Amino acid sequence: MVLVSNPRAEAYVVAPWFTADRRLPATAPGCRRRGVCLSAVFRCQTRRVILLLDQIRRWRAGLALVVLLAVVAVGCGDDGGEEAGEGDRAGETAEEPQARVAIEDQPGDVEATGALRDVSGLVCEAEGSEWVATGQVTNPTDAAATYRIFISFLDADRDTVGVVQTTVDDVPSGEPVDWSARLDLSSDDLECVLRVERFVAE
Description:
Number of strands: 10
Helix content: 25-40%
Radius of gyration: 48 Å
Distance between the termini: 112 Å
Structural class: alpha+beta
Low-confidence stretches: 1-31, 78-84
Strand order of the largest sheet: 3-8-7-10-4
Number of helices: 1
């Protein structure tokens, strides 16, 4: 198919007059000189290429703008979500109660025997702004021993709100000895849980 000049219409029309081997014959309908016909074809094809390139440039510019707007929108949404998430986590951390700890020794840092059974008469109660734990310890061994008693105060959710330690030295064999410990806590309805260690002091 070749575009040839139409002198009357001043436009280009399609003329399917190629030969079988796809070559332009010496003469063609509406075209007396071969060079004139080829020039018309080239001009038409050049116009089409220019229009096509212009459309491609416009399309690429529009696509780039759409992609840019989408990236900006997603970025803004992510930043807001992260800020909100950090704010929520900060709020959660601020609301978590901090346990009050008043101990002198680290539980288990000496060779000791678990001696929870040696404690009796445990009482845990609030006194003003403090919680007080009291009881007795009886040494069942033949030699004097030292007791370290760790009292944990638990709330209704079984969360530890405070820990305090008391040490009872030189507890004689078979003789009950009173002990007590107190911790500044303003919580209500707490439960006491003990860890008791018995060892022979050097």
